[in-house]
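Help!! Second protein's tokens look totally different from the first
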Amino acid sequence: MLKCLKSLLFLSLFFQFSCNDNDDQPDPVLPDAEFTDRVVTSGLSYPWELVWGSDNAIWMTERGGKVSRVNPETGTITIVATINEVESRGEGGLLGMALHPNFSSTPEVFLVYNYVTVGGEYSEKVVKYSYNGSALINPQVIFDGIGALNYHNGSRLVISDDLKLYITTGDAGTVQWAQDMSSPNGKVLRINLDGSIPADNPVSGNAVWSLGHRNAQGLVFAKGKLYSSEHGPEKDDEINIIQKGGNYGWPDVNGFCDEAGEQSFCNEKNVVEPLVSYTPTIAVSGMDYYDNAQIPQWKNSLLVATLKDRTLYQFKLNEAGTEIIETNEFYRGEYGRLRDVLVAPNGKVYIATSNGSDDKIIEISRGN
């Protein structure tokens, strides 16, 4: 009997330690998933922003001034606003959009677009709307006076967990604005949702969060960090981590601080270098963060749409989110120029084309 008790005790301890050891092991690596793509809807004209709504619809802006809800299953489009004030010139028009994080209880929609002022100047502003269940109403201008041109207007919007609105702005062709703290251009701006300036911004009373940007068109929060994608000139498109008060160098620095003429400026201004740069440029645009088990090989990755390169890029991050450790390319040339990418909560991915004729929203999902 004693031997049996000892044996049972031994087996109990053995299984206990074995289970504890297994608990300490990392999760198994899931095999790569095959995925498939389909056209959700077509016949669009320069879609610019895709945002997932709490109503399980894709909210979309088109550069000409339309805001719509798209049913991701049927592709049915419901227009919720046509903003006649929008002035689309070249790359300008209705651009970025963000929905209030608590949209079901606070149905607010934030838009950034180009328009013509009373004085006849081409300009850019951020406007907050309310959604009444069928249309956008009660526009309130919360930030104005951003310089505009027919190119280099930015502009993405994203709202943080602490309810701050981040806005990317381009240099609007006036490169010196990017280093001028009195100008909102060539910056990442940070404001409260009512348009006021947060007390903890780098400079009191100033909306500037970071400076030295040429034309950032991608913006996403992930892993407690703010990532952006930025157009370079003929060289050095960038993927950046945006830091409070950071200087990203433009127009004195392109990409890394790796040219002789850049060193003194980099040292003086403590320039923040990108995670990666591309020469020749690939025209990086909208971006989102993927961390869903539906496509395991994309977990912990930035997905970036490109215009000139006509490709969806996957930038896999290290665990800290401080480095890109792997890069893969998908759908090169299959759908033309790609403006934005959206990751839905169920792990499906949506990309918007920017060809100007019969533009589309494409769904990428796990294959059967």
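Here's the second one for comparison:
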Amino acid sequence: MVSVRSAHTVGSIIRAYGADQVRLEITYGKHLAKNVIPSRITLGCMVEALASNNDPEGAYDIIQQALAEPQTKGLVNAVTYSSVLKSFNHQKSFHRVWDVYDEMIRGKVEFSVTTYNALLDVCARSGEISRAEPLLKEMAVQGITPNIITYGTVIKAYCSANRLDQAFAVFSDMQANTDLHPDEVTYNTLLDGCARYGSFDRGLEVMADMKKAKVPPSNYTLSVIAKLANRSKKPKLAFQMVEELRRGTRELFALGIASRNVFT
């Protein structure tokens, strides 16, 4: 039997096992039993593997084991924690997310934009929009520049909370004050917010902006447009709007304006 004593090799084995949780735990346990100090990559692989396997508590325990040992304490960073945050979020264990967040603050973990994006996504999924604004202020204080995912997640959070004015304000701020360009996901998020609350005119504005920016629509975009028309009590217009956008033969915005008097 070959004796594995390299942290890098163990990390590769962990990645290879993927979702085989039992083997993952055995491999990592043997790795520690041999007194081979894991690398940051090895630790991260194990935490990510367990978190991806819907075992955030197991992943969290691995972090706690590392923090308990002087030689491995320094291996834990924001990236390691982010795997756990995302897994708790997907399981809707939002209280555990904030428990871990408080622990990170106490431990003076250096956050990254990815960490904040993960936390903001929790705000969007849980409806705790009141937590989003302090997080954005923290980012500013630490000099962390928001990226397209940050803006998209904040827009999603505001849309989920039926605060379309703030969602559009964030969208406008991104366009006016950054070099970032809205992508299909950002436009779809705004469209879905408009559809959810029957804000037809604003939805048309988003579609016009999307067309102007030459961002191609996806199948999801088409489904949201149909939802927008239906929620706005314009079911007949839904088919026409989807078909026109799909073909790209007319100006959708002009179509919407011309159709308002017909279907209202």
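Reply: Different proteins will give different token patterns, so don't panic. Residues 194-264 form one domain.
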